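Researcher: We are triaging several targets before committing to wet-lab work. For this one, the compound of interest is NAP. I'm pasting the protein sequence and the ligand SMILES. What I need is the predicted three-dimensional arrangement of the protein with the ligand bound, expressed as structure tokens, so it can go straight into our comparison scripts without reformatting.
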Amino acid sequence: MGREVVRLALDAGLDVTVLSRRPPSGTSQSRHDGARYFQADVTTGTGLAEALRGADVVIDCLEGRSGKARRNFADGGARLLAAAAAADVRRAVLPSIINCDQSGAAFYVSKADKERVYARSPLETVVVRATQFHSLMTEVFEAGAKIRLIPVFKGARFQTISPTDVASVLLDEALGESSPERHRVRTIGGPEIRTMRELAEVWRNSLGLRGRIIELPLPGAMGKFLRNGLNLIPEQRLGTETFEAWLAKREESL
Ligand SMILES: NC(=O)c1ccc[n+]([C@@H]2O[C@H](COP(=O)([O-])OP(=O)(O)OC[C@H]3O[C@@H](n4cnc5c(N)ncnc54)[C@H](OP(=O)(O)O)[C@@H]3O)[C@@H](O)[C@H]2O)c1
């Protein structure tokens, strides 16, 4: 999603600096002409001051899915915000996940912890809580399809959204007028709610694959979260790109 934020920001004529631990090389397709790239690590703080010098707004597209990265996720955000405050950055925008504070799953707990770091920051902050990305679904399907089985979680429905739609909202929030509320939360969801099986069928058909779709129970806090529909926000169908449209666009660009 960070790459989409960079692309849209450059299209809007903004001055863009990107930081990550492994910035893309000069010839990489992931590199956007016109952006400046810095090597920095929010876990150690290395390179943050240089990357943030002169910045007005920070959009934090970091991720830490498991293990140490997940445990360091909120602290990394705090380190980024502290460096941003020292560089006189005005505002920070954070993508997060719908209802992450309603689950005991470690991944969601780390998201809610980071939201709290943002709510305590001296900077003006906006947290944009989104539903799951279309790309998350394809990651799950692709993992199983290697052995010709496409896994879907029993009872799970999703309101997936395109990373581009989320990136566009992040950018709007980064550029919008200041609000009297120093710390705001906004929620956005994808255009449709579908069962995971329906999404798997769409994905399989779009690629012309023959793998078998198998329903698996998802135990634990994550399973409960999905079965209770806490990943959905039916009243906020703000994303415009459907799963089908996103898949078609992805196929064209490959
Ligand atoms: N995936 C979803 O369905 C979904 C839904 C809603 C919200 N979100 C939120 O959107 C955000 C971005 O998700 P994504 O899927 O786009 O993540 P992603 O593809 O994994 O990208 C994460 C980025 O963070 C950088 N990074 C990781 N650790 C770092 C560190 N210690 N220091 C500096 N950079 C670091 C990575 O670059 P390097 O590896 O080069 O450092 C990479 O550019 C996450 O906060 C996530 O919670 C995701």
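Researcher: Any quick observations?
Model: Residues 1-2, 20-22, 40-43, 61-63, 76, 95-97, 111, 130, 132-133, 136 surround NAP (CB under 6 Å).
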